């Protein structure tokens, strides 16, 4: 069924792009006029080229994407792994993600410290209903609560341990 739909839509599709630069070039050289994007990143690159673009969410809604970092059990450099995780969830990492990629972030305290009010609002940092509206693949959603409640539990305050600071651990979730 999926193959049939893809074949049916082939005349409408110029290219399945895989890098930000590919999409920017497709717009720049007039090969495409509409495409999905990575939430502002390609738009900022096009704006830097002097090309005006408009971002919008179609009536079918926007797709959501989540990246994550993990530490492999038994890693030989656990201290370094925790430093990396703390940097990424702290202000430096969160501000980097927001300001370089134009993505929403998971740490609202860091977001407030590095975003203008306009950027904070544009990235939906203050709009949990927007998070709940995103279409995602394979995301486990607790049936009794929305995605923003899941994220609030997952991204709750930091806990401390010797040479480590990450959160929340099982004890923090039970509290």
Shape: globular
- Report the portion of residues in β strands: under 5%
Main beta sheet strand tally, sense and closure:
2 strands, antiparallel
The whole-angstrom Rg is 19 Å
Mean pLDDT: 75
Order of helices and strands: HHHHHHHHHEEH
* Main structural class: mainly alpha
- The helicity comes to 40-55%
Describe what you observe in this structure.
The protein is mainly alpha-helical. It is built from 10 helices and 2 strands, in the order H-H-H-H-H-H-H-H-H-E-E-H. It has a two-stranded antiparallel sheet with strand order 1-2. Strand 1 (159-161) and strand 2 (164-166) form a beta hairpin. The longest helix is centred in the middle third of the chain and has 12 residues, at 78-89. The radius of gyration is 19 Å and the shape is globular. 10% of the residues are buried. Mean pLDDT is 75; it is low at 150-175.
Question: What's the topology here?
Answer:
Elements lengths: L1 H8 L10 H9 L12 H8 L29 H12 L1 H11 L6 H7 L2 H6 L5 H6 L13 H8 L4 E3 L2 E3 L3 H5 L1
Antiparallel strand pairs: 1-2
Helix pairs in contact: 2-3, 4-5, 5-6
């Amino acid at each position: 069924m999926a193959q049939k739909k893809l074949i049916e839509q082939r005349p409408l599709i110029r290219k399945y792009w895989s890098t930000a630069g590919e999409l920017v070039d497709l717009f720049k050289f007039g090969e495409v006029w509409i495409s999905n994007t990575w939430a502002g990143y390609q738009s900022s690159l096009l704006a830097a080229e002097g090309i005006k673009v408009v971002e919008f969410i179609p009536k079918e809604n926007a797709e959501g994407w989540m990246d994550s970092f993990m530490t492999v059990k038994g890693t030989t450099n656990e201290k370094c792994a925790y430093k990396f995780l703390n940097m990424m969830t702290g202000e430096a990492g969160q501000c980097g993600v927001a300001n370089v990629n134009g993505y929403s972030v998971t740490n609202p305290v860091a977001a407030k410290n590095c975003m203008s009010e306009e950027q904070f609002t544009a990235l939906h940092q203050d709009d949990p209903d927007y998070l709940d509206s995103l279409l995602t693949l394979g995301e486990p959603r607790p049936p009794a609560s929305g995605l923003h409640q899941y994220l609030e539990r997952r991204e709750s305050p930091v806990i401390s341990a010797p040479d480590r600071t990450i959160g929340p651990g099982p004890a923090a979730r039970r509290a």
